[in-house]
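[09:14] KT: can someone run the structure on this one? pasting the chain below
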Amino acid sequence: MEGRNQTRVTEFILLGLSHEGDLQSLLFWVFLSMYLVTFTGNLLMILAIITDSRLHTPMYFFLSNLCFSDICFTSTTVPKMLLNIQTQSKVISYKSCLSQMYFFMLFGVLDTFLLTVMAYDRFVAICHPLHYMVIMNPKFCGILLLGSWVLSIFNSLLHDLLILRLSFCTDLEILHFFCELNQMIQLACSDTFLNDLAVYLAGGLLGVVPLTGILSSYSRIVTSIL
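[09:31] RB: done, structure tokens below
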């Protein structure tokens, strides 16, 4: 295994969704149309919230941030895939791969936190309507948003730093159309115990805690309505 190690990785190969040439054109137009619809829809939502003073409320504040996060999330992977299909190239540099993986995890986790915060916002609005503006004041909303960003950045930075310590084999083909964390770990030739541990711990915490918060908020909403 040591004879296959590389001391300096410069690029990876993204194998994409299909090896068949006939499907490449179809995939390009399908993903391009989906990306444009997602980008345009979220952008129009943000502009509507900004321009309409009646929508300057906590709910729409978090919704606009969720739309921005969705734009960034899709822009992290889809444009590179479309470029690779158009240029018939599957190469991505090592630095670009790390950057893509970092921002993909950042905005993916941020989406989860924002959905949790929005569920809490609806819980306060429905179950404590008389105290809604007192609880969901601008300062508290800012703290919730800042906390979501900080936790998302810390999680992505942790995984990226752990990837940097790995050495990779000569087989640098990623079975995906973007640099995905688990795929990167599987390509490594060095010990991946810390990486696997971080994936399980972060995945458990970032999966269980937000899901518990969302389910708890909406279950109490349903109970209050009934």
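[09:33] KT: thanks! The radius of gyration is 21 Å.
[09:34] RB: yep, looked fine to me
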